[in-house]
Amino acid sequence: MTSKFTELGIDCADPGALARFWCAVLAYEVRDTGDGLVTIGPPAAPGGEERLGPVPPTLTFARVPEGKTVKNRLHLDVSPADREQGDEVHRLLGLGARRSDVGQGDESWVVLADPEGNEFCVLAARCP
By CB count within 10 A, which of 2, 35, 80, 93 is most buried? Predict the structure, then answer.
């Protein structure tokens, strides 16, 4: 038997604000809130039915007192679903992301940081 990747926890200063940013990035919705936590995930299937096939993991944002101080050891990669990479980068910058240099050099992906400084990559190739 194996495990399934179902949830990623992200420490942050403002769970609500960071959840709103990532909901806009991923077309997710808030699933649960409470006690310094906000969990987001893909929208429910129409009619409340179970989704067929793989379901993307949820993200849970947890309020912590300390701030981010170094480069992430784990980060998200996102792939534009309905536009080219440059257009998606422009959209994400408009949502509050900012460009980030983690020493990547000249690569096919673009490194951005979310509003709390967590790095993530925007890949060039569109994936279904």
Answer: 80
What are 83's two structure tokens?
A: 């536009």
| 23: phi then psi, degrees, rounded to nearest 5 | -60, -45
Q: Which of 120, 114, 128, 121 is nearest to 85 (CA)?
A: 121
Task: Tell me the CATH number of domain 74-128, given options 3.10.180.10, 3.30.450.40, 3.30.2270.10, 3.30.565.10.
Answer: 3.10.180.10
**Hey, where are the domains in the chain?**
1-65, 74-128
- The Cα–Cα gap between 55 and 37 comes to 21
Domain with residues 1-65, CATH architecture? 2-Layer Sandwich (3.30)
* Dihedral (Cα; 112, 117, 118, 120), 10-degree rounding: 0
Would you say 6 and 58 are in contact if contact means Cβ atoms under 8 Å apart? yes
65-75 pLDDT per residue, tens: 988 888 778 88
The CA distance from 57 to 49, in Å, is 17
